[in-house]
Write a structure and sequence with these properties.
Distance between the termini: 55 Å
Shape: globular
Radius of gyration: 23 Å
Oligomer: single chain
Number of strands: 0
Number of domains: 2
Order of helices and strands: HHHHHHHHHHHHHHHHHH
Strand content: under 5%
Length: 446
């Protein structure tokens, strides 16, 4: 099976797992799960701190140091995971009560203590395989992960759901943890006999220069993950601001938490679902774009960039129309309800700009300007949170959607300005000037 084929199957299984979760635990439990989801994303990013990227990069450059890199990365990852587990154990009730203003989230937060070390372990192992150019194995592992998760959802999530919304949300977290176990087991069993036999004893071998390896890992991992952590911190504060403002304004907390769950777990996933195709298109254009920049053929690079943007927008317009006119059908088919379909219809066209987010990020990587995304992420995240804080009183649940949109617009526009400025500094002519000169030349010849 090809990597693209396996990735597609993994994506479809992931969608199926999400749909099964949503249908089984219902909207109230999904509301609780949605409140703790930003915390989960932040903790995962903090526990990994970009280690998978650093591992794959270093192993690709220094294959003979694979064991040393594995040992050092694993120790760093596990120590961070243990620290986060302890924080969750002691602070979960406090965070649920005073930050989220919703004690129903406590059980699900405790569940994150199980998920975090499993996610860290699997991501480190995947980084090793990618560094050794065995990407097919990591793609296959994602399929195994979703199969394990689906197995749990089919046979066990119903039990959790029957115990109440709090247990339903916990079941959703445990389902993810179960998937990580399956993924890790698969990656372990396909390893060589020597690796399976000695991988644990290597952790206690004192012959490795761990300090040097740690410096090398962190030198790559921290810059690579800085933008992601900044974004996840902003995402982390979203439900805190939302629930605290709802509490302060004396609004109906239970109904708005359900609406928050519908918006973030039902509506947003449909809106960003076609992004899978945009990622595939972006990766298709990336080698040619990177090559043109490497050879300093900036005019060709600029034309490739424009082609990527307009292709993504064209696809986006098609998908947006499907979502707009088929909102009720999509909701009824996927979730067996039309509650939330109106949100989908209202937000479909404003979300069109999301289709050029990935092309912009891919282009910045090709231009070796990934560090510029950090500043744009900080600016857009701060504006997003301020807008959310001040607009809840007037817009209620729509404040979440509008603040997300405004933040995305600012982030994408800042990245676009940076990319276009780069090409202008390298004396690239706009497409309009090129067309004008061609037209003028044809007139002159005639």
């Amino acid at each position: 099976m090809s990597i693209l084929g396996a990735a597609t199957i993994g994506k479809l299984l992931s969608m199926l797992a999400r749909l099964l979760t949503v249908r089984t635990i219902k909207s109230e439990a999904m509301g609780i799960f949605s409140l703790i989801n930003p915390l989960m994303v932040l903790l995962i990013n903090l526990s990994q701190i970009g280690l998978p990227v650093a591992i794959s990069t270093l192993i690709a450059k220094k294959p003979n140091d694979s064991r040393k890199i594995y040992v050092t990365a694993f120790i760093i990852g596990i120590l961070l995971s243990i620290l986060i587990m302890l924080l969750i154990f002691f602070l979960a009730p406090i965070f649920a009560k005073f930050c989220l203003k919703n004690e129903s989230t406590t059980l699900a937060i405790y569940g994150l203590g199980l998920l975090i070390p499993l996610t860290t372990t699997s991501s480190i192992i995947k980084g090793i395989y990618i560094g050794k150019r065995k990407v097919q194995y990591t793609t296959n592992s994602s399929i195994v992960e979703e199969i394990f998760r689906l197995s749990f959802l089919l046979f066990a999530i119903g039990y959790f759901s029957k115990q109440g919304p709090e247990m339903g949300a916990l079941g959703a977290v445990i389902g993810m943890a179960f998937g990580e176990v399956g993924q890790t087991l698969y990656l372990y069993f396909i390893a060589s006999k020597n690796t399976k036999k000695n991988c644990l004893s290597w952790l206690f071998d004192k012959n490795y220069e761990s300090k040097y390896a740690a410096k090398e890992l962190l030198k790559i991992s921290l810059p690579a993950t800085a933008s992601k952590i900044i974004g996840s911190v902003a995402y982390f504060f979203e439900p805190i601001i939302f629930t605290n403002m709802v509490y302060k304004l004396n609004l109906d907390m239970n109904s708005l938490v359900i609406e928050y769950g519908i918006l973030t777990s039902y509506v947003f996933p449909i809106l960003v679902l076609p992004s899978y195709f945009i990622i595939a298109i972006s990766n298709y254009f990336l080698p040619d774009l990177a090559k043109s920049i490497e050879t300093r053929d900036y005019q060709t690079g600029y034309l490739i960039f424009l082609k990527l943007i307009f292709t993504s927008l064209g696809l986006g317009i098609i998908f947006t129309n499907i979502i707009f006119f088929g909102s009720d059908f999509l909701f009824n088919t996927l979730y067996k309800t039309t509650k939330g379909a109106e949100y989908l219809k209202v937000l479909s066209f404003p979300f069109l700009i999301f289709y050029i987010e990935t092309p912009c990020i891919i282009s910045l990587h090709a231009l070796s300007r990934s560090n510029k995304t950090i500043l744009s992420t900080i600016i857009s995240s701060l504006i997003r949170l301020f807008l959310l804080f001040f607009s809840i009183k007037y817009l209620s649940i729509y404040a979440v959607a509008i603040s997300t949109l405004v933040g995305a617009y600012i982030d994408i526009l800042l990245n676009l300005v940076d990319i276009i400025s780069f090409f202008k500094r390298n004396n690239v002519q706009s497409i309009f000037k090129i067309q004008y000169k061609k037209k003028f030349a044809n007139i002159y010849k005639s």
